[in-house]
Amino acid sequence: MRKFMLPVMAFGLLAVLVGIASTTGPGAAQNETQEPRAADAEPAPFNPQLSALMSMLIQPRHAKLGLAGQAENWPLAGYMLKELRQGFAVVGRVVPRWKGLPVPDLVEAALEQQWATLDFAIKAGEPRQFAESYGKLTQGCNNCHTTMDHPFIVIKAPNASAWPNMEFKPQGR
After folding, report:
1. In the predicted model, is pLDDT for residue 126 greater than 90?
2. By CB distance 3.0 to 4.6 Å, which of 10, 121, 158, 165 could disulfide with 130?
3. Using CA atoms, how far apart are residues 105 and 126, in angstroms rounded to an integer?
4. Does 3.30.930.10 match the CATH number of domain 50-147?
């Protein structure tokens, strides 16, 4: 049995030495001068398209605002209204023009009048006025989509929550 072990061990040692030599020898310097691996590269600047920003920032906030208002959770609705407005500000900074159209101006024209009435309805805790104002805000979104030649993107008030891990009913504290 020992007769066979010695050659096997010698072959294993030789394989290890060849492996070490190939990673530290003259060929190793050539590997270092090649392009860096993708995982080691600097990250590319984040440059999202308008549609991605609308899906990431605007649509969830719009839905959460609607769900909070439907549940009459006025503190959450106020927070989501502020978040929605901030989301539109970010969109306008990141994509100031889309197909030659001024995005911040379009958002302002479509929604500016609705912000104040929606804010008032939330602060007053008026469910009927909230529903009416939210409906007008949503219609403003759809009007903007039509102006931007995307009438097929139709936003509506949510009828179910996409966030099973979030409670929209007000909490008694």
Report:
1. yes
2. 121
3. 30
4. no
- Asked whether 48 and 94 are in contact (CB, 8 A), the reply is yes
Paired tokens of 112: 């500016």
What does R_g of the chain's alpha carbons equal in angstroms?
A: 29
Confidence tier at 107 by pLDDT (50, 70, 90): very high
Domain-wise residue ranges, the chain: 50-147
| Tens-place pLDDT, residues 29-70 | 555 567 778 888 888 888 889 999 999 999 999 999 999 999
> In sequence order, what DSSP letters do the residues of 91-103 get, joined into one string?
HHHH-SEETTEEH
Q: Nearest Cα to 63, choosing from 172, 171, 166?
A: 166
pTM: 0.74
pLDDT of residue 22: 58
